[in-house]
Amino acid sequence: MFYLTYNILSIFLLFPIICYHLYRSVSRGRSPAFAERFGYIHQGKLAKLGKRPVIWLHAVSVGESLAARPLLRAIRSRYPEHAILISNTTETGRAIASRFPEKDLCIYFPFDFLPAVHRALDCIKPSLVIIMETEIWPNFNREASKRGIPLMLANGRISDRSFNRYLRFRWFFRHPLQLFSALCMQTETDRERIVAIGAAPESTLTSGNLKYDIPYRQVGADEIHTFREQYGIPDNLTVICAGSTHPGEEEYLLRAYHELLSPTSGLFLVMVPRHPERAGEVAEQIQRAGIRCRRRTQMNTQEGGVFRSGDVLLIDTVGELMNLYALSDIVYVGGSLVPTGGHNLLEPASLGVPLIYGPYMTNFREIAALVAHYGAGIRVETPEALVEAIRILIVSCDLRRVLGQNGLKMMRDAGGATERHMDVVARHINTSNLVLHEY
Predict the structure, then answer these.
(1) For a tag on the chain, would you pick the N or C end, based on fewer CB atoms within 10 A?
(2) How many Å apart are CA 348 and CA 324, to the nearest integer?
């Protein structure tokens, strides 16, 4: 009865969903990719899978895609005879995932409309499906289960903000949740929450956070020089990188930058909006502040030393954030001075770069607590405190070095989630009855 009602409702919702995706794609200058979203995958693409069993990993957007990297590397190493297919929901997630060398094919995830799900599963015939974090789609889960395809939730989490909402709709979520073969949750709290929502207790376990398993290293002087040369940033400038910023934060950062600038400060700001399509809006803010700005897509990367102190490099591309963190002296992690839930503090920490973040870290509460415990960054409560934190780090090379080393120690101590996830993969992947493809 539940699935009948859900599918009747999905028919009525299909038209507004199509309109939403069409508007989103056109407004951002991207293809809506409706064929793939309705389960039609071009035979030329499917040929990339070869006659191999397929492991299908779904990551909604950028954050989930990046978090999946340690798991993808481990799967590629341990199961070289398998093809790896990555699906995404958002265009930016697809742009990131398509660059991963571990993948054989990258597609858009189908709408949870029964014919679309049927077609996608018929085309791909996966041996295992891995869903990153907390994506729950009733039709997809049910059809995978009916075909005997193991379904694994990886790096699962239930945020404070979403838990009560999930509880209110427990009657809805418990049906698809109970179809997962295994649910690997980041923390014990996450495990307890997903069981309360309706997951089978015997299928859930605490596996840790895959984001802790990203490679970590101290960036050397030669590498910093190479990156700075690539972006046209002189070596003598103190670089502040503001990563994954949201509306409202750019104003705070530009105000702080303007206040800290002086003829001898040698400061340089790199601004990386979370959504590249906001670059025009951010560029206007920078120009109104009277600051010289250049977009990444407008740069001649062959020309060195094009920037000077007091300029701003505005990033309107995807996939470059880690390189920008690596060349920086100080990193501010966005989404944290406005109530959006924060972003991943581990990325700058993994490069030994000191970081600053705000109080709104509800989506990364555990990571923020770990950063505070290890002394790997500075938490600021207000835009005024942001100015003072940057000022302190500018003048104290020793403090920058201490925070960076603390971040590397944190990364070294907190790993292990990939192996725990791989134990679950090994238990559920069917290596004795491989699904082969014929195209």
Answers:
(1) N
(2) 9
Least confident of 23-37, 127-141, 173-187: 23-37
Please state, in angstroms and rounded to a whole number, the distance separating the CA atoms of residues 370 and 375: 8
Q: Output the pLDDT for position 159.
A: 86
Helix 188-197 with 170-177: angle, nearest 10 deg: 110
Query: Are 154 and 130 in contact, with CB atoms under 8 Å apart?
Result: yes
C-beta separation of 268 from 311 below 8 A: yes
User: In 10 A of CB 53, how many CB atoms?
Assistant: 21
Helix and strand totals (H; E) in the chain = 20, 14
Look at strands 355-357 and 267-273 and give their pairing.
unpaired
The 10 Å Cβ neighbour count of residue 44 is 8
* CA terminus-to-terminus distance, the chain: 37
Active-site residue numbers?
64
Closest CA to 11 of 112, 82, 137, 90: 112
**Chain segment 331-350, per-residue pLDDT in tens:** 999 999 999 999 999 999 99
pLDDT at 354 over 90: yes
Query: How far apart, in whole angstroms, are the C-alpha atoms of residue 356 and residue 97?
Result: 27
The string of DSSP letters for 33-85 reads: -HHHHTT---HHHHGGGTTS-EEEEE--SHHHHHHTHHHHHHHHHH-TTSEEE
Q: Which domains does the chain have, with CATH numbers?
A: 42-208+416-428 (3.40.50.11720), 221-413 (3.40.50.2000)
CA-CA-CA-CA dihedral for 230, 231, 236, 237, to nearest 10: -160
Where helices occur in 68-185 by DSSP H, the ranges are 69-78, 91-97, 114-124, 138-146, 160-168, 170-177
CA distance 167 to 174: 10
- pTM metric for this prediction: 0.75
Look-up of token digits 């951010």: 282
